[in-house]
Each structure stands twice: as structure tokens, then as C-alpha cells.
Write a structure and sequence with these properties.
Helix content is 47%, strand content 18%. The protein contains 29 helices and 26 strands. Strands 18, 19, 20, 21, 22, 23, 24, 25 and 26 form a nine-stranded mixed sheet that branches. Strands 1, 2, 3, 5, 6, 14 and 15 form a seven-stranded mixed sheet that branches. A four-stranded mixed sheet has the order 4-10-11-12, covered by helices on one side.
Length: 807
């Protein structure tokens, strides 16, 4: 089908509009393909990204979208999202274990750490650790004290001084008591806790789990039903949705009562550090609140907040009554920090983490350096301090969008707190969905109308829209929006590919006509490029490498063969030579009797065309030698050819008359190539190239020999010509590299003597070559010249240029 004629947008009146509609109607099938593609994309988008639970068959698309999001994180510059310096991490690293002892070390170190942080002005301390058992580092001392008490009860005599000393030792090493006092002195401290799923409860009795649940009950947060009349049902639905997402928990593990004092929840608090990964194991979301209870009646359950939420509450100086979660029949609506901060998570309390950067984006200080005060004073002043582990064997390492299982969980919490305080969460909501739908529609229907109207060669422009799509999604990401890339990109590529495929199949009939018309005298490469871009064959000046090859003594060969044998001979020879030209991406120009003209560098301009021409020439000579053996074995005449190569600017394109034209090259570069081919007869060589071809291909592994400086007939400017002797790798493979090097050196020395008019010495040098290589044609030529110049000295202004008087 023909594309609409150009310039329809410039015409006015009803006829222009009619022509446009008529053109569109001819290509209506293309538009229908685009329409179906768009509807399919919208359906897939809904079931994969908007449904309450994604359809399993499309989970792989969800993972592709996750991968595209992770790529955006990895290529985002660090300066675009600087980490908040308000947050500092105290790390239980390898260094701390070397200084303070192997984990778990005494909680006296945590007590000392809190005292140091308090003295340095830290505002909040949050532990990514649960202290669910008493400190074990003084267990032996406790056992000794219990044994002493037992002996006293049994009436055994006890040394009073020993008893006093032991009592004092136990008191001094009561790590939990010291840690608890340090917590009280510090004030705003958040201790970590975590929740367990049913499958994780094996081996834990119900009484222990009930005890844990009672210990955290003091730290629940206020829940407010936006519709009090349906509050009970709404909360039950909320619990169901958490369970549906796999975030329903059956038990908790709490801190020991000595540390988590329910009498003072305004200062010391607890928060869970459970974080659920996506299906591919990557942490992209955080859960800020969740419902929990041990009762079978979910209305008795309470809402609990995360470690990050409690840390932010204490940082803002809010009492527990000011922290509340609002919900309705849809789920969680908002998390309110009084009137200071409001966060609107999704219906199950999740937010997309907008990571500030890869591991190490926040300031890390080893706990050993804190305890020993090995840091700059004021480092922690006014800061939120997170305490967690990264040491091998005890570190809580997670997988994040930056790849690898090496991201400390404590730094994940740091990112969440940063997002909360700076309103920096990655936004994925109704506005983003609207943008996604608009992108799918635009890349479907309007693009489909456009592709139905333009010529097939412009289809690539549709695929190029991937670039602005990537730019828009990335730009939105830099501003905190997560726009879907996968489905719009699939819409675009599916649209372009399917419409292009249809139009290509329909228009293939027209293309076959072109192949039939031009295939008999143009190379397959020219045909292919003509079909892709017909303008390539328009006349233009460009740099090409031209080859002429000719059979030596063709007249005498033709006299020895009858017409049938001569035709078979030429058909085989020209077919083999043409295949070689095409194999090196050359363009066959024409056959001139037994001569072949070809060129490289057009219609497609590309580097390295001189080297391809040289490779083709050597391959042609190799095939000729094989043909020589075949013909000699059949008792037929010997075949010899000469080849000339020249690189230069020529006019290339479709040229001829109105009745007949062909793709050809014209100009001085073509004429000189023909002259170079003829010089092979004078020098007894097979392949001669000009200076320009030599310069373009000398570094591509070829062996050249400089032959002469000469002036061909019809040219005033002398040219340096070279003999192409082979490929370096072939010469090395057959063991003749050293002999060839010696031959070239002797010839160069002879030419130097020749240019210096030392005829006797030059003749001797060339004769030495002939003694070693009797068939060296150029050496024979120079011996004859030296003899002539000894008989008749050239003029005094002779510049070494040899003038060729024939073509």
C-alpha cells in the first residue's frame, strides 16, 4: 500500500481532509492492530498492577517492573537524594567485637554507649535489636551467688567479707540493671521487637507467647475508625487484608521487663522491625503499622507501630496519645503525629522506600569507638541514633534495589526515618496510575494512527519514543514518583512491531517488484539498502575504494577455446569473482568484457572500505590460482589476472538515461583505478594499489611493497604505487615472513640507489633480488631501467618520477 503523498498537511479545504481520511482507511487494519494492542495492555496493567492480588500469570511482568525500578535507583546520582545528616548509625561491626569481645557482649557496653550519646547531645536512640533474654555474660557470677545463698540456708558458715565482696561483684556486673538505668537517664529510647508468623512458633509454648504479648500491650497506638458505626467491621476487614498479603502474625518476641518499663512509655518505647520483601526477595516497601493480638476475636486486637514510627514520635517530642492510626472500610488511611506530621500509607500501612543511596549513605560509627569516646565531640548532637549490627555472622543484611545481600537492616530503618521526616517516600498512587494509563493510551491509539499514515521507513521513529518514555519515567523518579515503565514500553514495542510486521508483509509484493527490476545488475547489498532507503542510490560524491580486475591475454585464450567453452570459462570466472566481491560487502558496478569493476564505501558510507577491497583482491587471486590448477589439469590455457585498487572521491549513484540507468561510480578515482590495473602488465605484478589505498589499509595487517613514483597518462601529478603482496597472518602461517621481509628490504635499498642515480649499484641490488627470486617482475623492470639510464643519463632535474606513456 502506498503511503500518503507528502505535503497533505499543507493543503487546504475538504479535498485535503478527504485524502487524509482515504489514506487512513486504506491502512485501517494497522490502526485496528494498534487499538487491540492498547486494550490488551490496559487489561494486563489492571490485573498486574491494580488488582488487590496480581494474577499469577502476569507476575513476571511485575518483576520486570521491579527490575526497571531498581535500575533507576542504581543510576540515580547521589547528589539527587542526599542522606539526612540528622541520622547516625552506631554499628556493631567486626572492629567492635575485637575491642569489646565476641557477640553477645555484655550490656554494660550498651549502657556506657547510651551515657556517652547522652553526654554528646543525642536526641533519640533506637535499637534494631531485641533484648528478650537476660544478659548471659554474668551468668557464672549469678550461679556462685545462688550457691552461696543455698549454703547459708543449710547453716554452713560463710565468711562475711567474702559474702560482701561477692554481693558487690554481682551488683557491679548486673548488666541489665545498668542498661536499664542508662535507658532511664537517656530518656527517648526505642527498643526493637518483632512479630512471628504461625509457622515460626514451633518449640515455643503458649504461656511464653502470652507473656510476650502482655509485655508489648502497653505500647499499642491509638486506632480511630473514620466511621464509628462500622468501625468493628472495618477493623475486621483491615485484619483480613493484612492476612491476605501475608502480614498477619500470631506471636511476638518482646524485650525483658527490666528494660522495657511499661511505667514510662512516654520515654522508653518499643517498635517492631519486621520488613516484608517483595516476591523477588528485595526490600522496596516498609510496614509502618500492623494489627496484632492473641485473641480469636480480632476486635480485641491492637495496632502497633514500627521502630521508625516510634523514633520519629520521640524525636518530635510527642506523647503516645498524639500518635494514632486512622482506618476505614478500605484499610489504613493515615498515620498521624499530632498536628506535626501526617503520613498516608497504602491500605495495609506500607510505604515505598525511597532509598537515599547504596550502603554507607549514612554516617556510621563503631560502637567500640562510641564507648571509648573515639569520635569528634558533637557528632551525635541533636541526632537520631540507630543501633544495629553489620558484622559477619550477626549482621542483619538485606537485599535492596542496589543488588546483593549486603545492605544492613539498620540502614534500611535509617532510610525510612529519613523519608518520614522529609516527606521523601516514593509515591505510587492514583496520580501515578493516571499517568500510566495516559502513557499507554498515547503510545497505543495516537501512535497507531500515525503509523498507519506514514511510510514504512518512518516506523523507526515510533520505536525511538522509548527514549522520551525512559526520560519521563526517570525524571519523575528523581522527583519521587514511581511511574510504570514496563506496560507503556510493551505497548510501544508491541504496537511498532506488529504494525511494522503487517505493513511489511502487505507491501512485500511491491518490494519483490523492485528486486526483480534491479536484482540482475545490482549487488544484493544495494538492493537491500534500496528497499530500506531508496535515497541511498541518488547521485552523490563520497569516498570509495574502486577495483578493476582484468584477465591477461584474454584474446589469445579466447582463440584457443570454442564459443561454448569460452562462455563456460567466463561464467565460472565472473561468478567466482562476483561472489568474493559480495562476501566482502562490495558493490558490483559492471562487467566490461572479461573485466570486473567493483567498489566499496557506497551506497552505505562506512569506515574500512579500503581494507575490504584489499581482502577481496587477495581472495580473488587465491581463487584464480585454484582455477589455474583446475584448467591446467584439463589441458586448457593458463589464467592470469591483474587488479588495480584506488581510494578517492567519486560520484556514485543511479546514472544513465530515462530509458535505462544503473548504479555506478564515475570520476578520476575510477579512471586511476583502471590505469593501476593496467600497470600490472608493465611490472609483472598482480595487485597494485595507489598511495591513498595504502595509507587507509596499511595498519590492517597487509604486506605492501612500494613500487614506483610515476605519472600515468593523462595526469600531471605523480603518484606513488604499491604492490599488495599478501596478509601478514597468511605470510606468517606459511613460514615465508622472513624471506618476504628480506625481499622488500632489498627492493627498497635498490630503489634508494636508483633515486640517487647510482645506476651500477642499483642494478646490482635488483639483480641480487632476481638471483633469489627469478620471477620478481618489478626487479626485472628496474634492472632494464638502470641499463637504459647507464646508456643515456636522465636530465639533471630528474626527480625519480617514471612517466607512463600508455594506458
Amino acid at each position: 500500500m502506498a503511503a500518503p503523498s507528502g505535503g497533505w498537511w499543507q493543503r487546504r479545504g475538504s479535498f485535503g481532509l478527504y485524502e487524509l481520511l482515504q489514506s487512513w482507511w486504506r491502512h485501517r487494519v494497522s490502526f485496528i492492530i494498534s487499538l487491540v494492542t492498547t486494550l490488551a495492555a490496559l487489561t494486563i496493567y489492571y490485573f498486574t498492577f491494580l488488582g488487590e492480588r496480581p494474577t499469577p500469570i502476569f507476575v513476571f511482568l511485575q518483576r520486570l517492573e521491579y527490575d526497571s525500578l531498581d535500575t533507576r535507583f542504581r543510576y540515580r546520582p547521589a547528589k539527587a537524594t542526599p542522606a539526612d545528616p540528622l541520622i547516625v548509625i552506631v554499628d556493631i561491626d567486626q572492629h567492635s567485637q575485637e575491642v569489646l569481645g565476641k557477640w553477645p557482649f555484655s550490656r554494660t557496653h550498651f549502657a556506657k554507649m547510651l551515657d556517652v550519646l547522652r553526654e554528646d547531645g543525642a536526641k533519640v536512640a533506637a535499637f534494631d535489636i531485641t533484648f528478650d533474654k537476660p544478659d548471659q555474660t554474668v551468668e557464672l557470677t549469678r550461679k556462685i551467688w545462688k550457691d552461696l545463698e543455698t549454703r547459708k540456708k543449710n547453716g554452713e558458715p560463710i565468711d562475711a567479707k567474702y559474702e560482701t565482696w561477692l554481693q558487690q561483684l554481682v551488683a557491679e556486673n548486673n548488666a541489665d540493671a545498668q542498661f536499664a538505668k542508662a535507658i532511664d537517664r537517656f530518656g527517648p529510647v526505642v527498643l526493637g521487637s518483632f512479630f512471628l508468623k504461625k509457622e515460626e512458633l514451633k518449640g515455643i509454648d503458649d504461656s511464653t507467647l502470652d507473656q510476650y504479648a502482655d509485655l508489648i500491650d502497653w505500647y499499642s497506638i491509638t486506632r480511630t475508625a473514620l466511621n464509628p458505626a462500622t468501625g468493628k467491621q472495618d477493623f475486621a476487614e483491615l485484619v483480613r487484608k493484612y492476612d491476605q498479603e501475608g502480614n498477619s502474625f500470631s506471636a511476638t518476641v518482646a524485650n525483658i521487663p527490666a528494660l522495657a518499663n511499661p511505667d514510662n512509655p512516654e520515654k522508653t518505647s518499643i517498635g517492631f522491625f519486621n520488613i516484608s520483601a517483595d516476591q523477588d526477595g528485595v526490600l522496596r516497601r516498609t510496614m509502618l503499622v500492623l494489627p496484632f493480638g492473641r485473641s480469636k476475636d480480632t476486635s480485641d486486637w491492637q495496632m502497633f507501630s514500627s521502630l521508625e514510627v516510634q523514633a520519629v514520635r520521640l524525636y518530635l517530642g510527642l506523647p503516645t496519645t498524639q500518635l494514632s492510626v486512622n482506618f476505614n472500610q478500605i484499610g489504613v488511611v493515615s498515620l498521624n503525629f499530632g498536628d506535626k506530621l501526617k503520613i498516608e500509607p497504602d491500605y495495609t500501612g506500607h510505604m515505598q522506600i525511597n532509598y537515599r543511596g547504596p550502603r554507607g549513605s549514612y554516617t556510621y560509627k563503631s560502637i567500640a569507638d562510641v564507648v571509648t569516646r573515639n569520635f569528634e565531640p558533637g557528632t551525635f548532637k541533636g541526632k537520631i541514633v540507630l543501633v544495629g549490627a553489620s558484622a559477619t555472622g550477626i549482621g542483619d543484611l538485606r537485599t535492596t534495589p542496589y543488588g546483593g545481600i549486603n545492605y544492613p537492616g539498620v540502614e534500611v530503618h535509617a532510610n525510612v526515618i529519613d523519608n518520614m521526616l522529609n516527606h521523601g517516600f516514593l509515591v505510587r498512587g492514583a496520580k501515578q496510575v493516571l499517568w500510566d494509563v495516559l502513557a499507554i493510551l498515547f503510545l497505543g491509539i495516537p501512535l497507531g494512527i500515525w503509523m498507519a499514515l506514514v511510510q514504512p521507513r518512518w516506523m523507526w521513529f515510533g520505536a525511538a519514543l522509548l527514549i522520551p518514555l525512559v526520560a519521563v519515567d526517570y525524571g519523575a523518579f528523581l522527583r519521587g514518583w514511581w511511574l510504570n515503565f514496563t506496560i507503556p514500553a510493551m505497548t510501544l514495542t508491541g504496537n511498532v512491531l506488529l504494525v511494522s510486521l503487517y505493513r511489511a508483509l502487505v507491501e512485500e509484493k511491491e518490494k519483490r517488484k523492485v528486486r526483480t527490476a534491479f536484482g540482475q545488475y545490482l549487488s544484493p547489498e544495494v538492493i537491500r539498502r534500496l528497499l530500506v532507503n531508496p535515497r541511498l542510490v541518488e547521485p552523490k560524491k563520497t569516498d570509495i575504494t574502486v577495483m578493476f580486475s582484468d584477465i591477461r591475454g584474454f584474446t589469445s585464450i579466447s582463440e584457443k577455446l570454442d564459443a561454448q567453452e569460452l562462455a563456460l570459462f567466463l561464467n565460472q570466472y565472473l561468478s567466482d569473482m562476483t561472489r568474493i566481491v559480495f562476501s566482502y560487502h562490495g558493490t558490483l558496478d559492471k562487467y566490461i568484457g572479461d573485466a570486473v569493476m567493483a567498489f566499496w564505501g557506497a551506497p552505505f558510507e562506512e569506515e574500512g572500505h579500503a581494507a575490504r577491497g584489499c581482502n577481496a583482491a587477495l581472495e580473488m587471486m587465491k581463487r584464480v590460482r585454484e582455477l589455474q590448477k583446475e584448467w591446467e589439469a584439463q589441458g586448457k590455457p593458463r589464467l592470469e589476472i591483474g587488479i588495480g585498487l584506488n581510494t578517492g572521491v567519486a560520484s556514485v549513484g543511479n546514472m544513465g538515461s530515462v530509458l535505462r540507468y544503473g548504479y555506478t561510480a564515475l570520476g578520476d578515482a575510477v579512471n586511476l583505478s583502471s590505469r593501476l590495473e593496467g600497470l600490472n602488465k608493465d611490472y609483472g605484478t598482480h595487485i597494485i594499489v595507489n598511495e591513498t589505498t595504502y595509507q587507509a589499509a596499511k595498519d590492517d595487517g597487509f604486506v605492501f611493497r612500494e613500487l614506483d613514483l610515476m605519472r600515468v597518462k593523462g595526469k600531471l601529478q605523480p603518484v606513488t604505487i604499491y604492490q599488495l603482496m599478501g596478509r601478514q597472518e597468511d605470510v606468517s602461517a606459511n613460514g615465508s615472513a622472513e624471506m618476504l621481509r628480506l625481499q622488500i628490504e632489498l627492493f627498497a635499498r635498490g630503489r634508494e640507489l636508483y633515486r640517487n642515480r647510482q645506476w651500477n649499484a642499483a642494478q646490482g641490488a635488483f639483480q641480487e633480488i632476481l638471483d633469489k627470486w627469478p620471477k620478481d617482475g618489478p626487479a626485472s623492470v628496474y634492472v632494464e631501467r638502470c641499463q637504459g639510464y647507464m646508456a643515456a643519463e636522465p636530465p639533471a632535474n630528474w626527480d625519480g618520477v617514471f612517466v607512463m606513456t600508455h594506458k
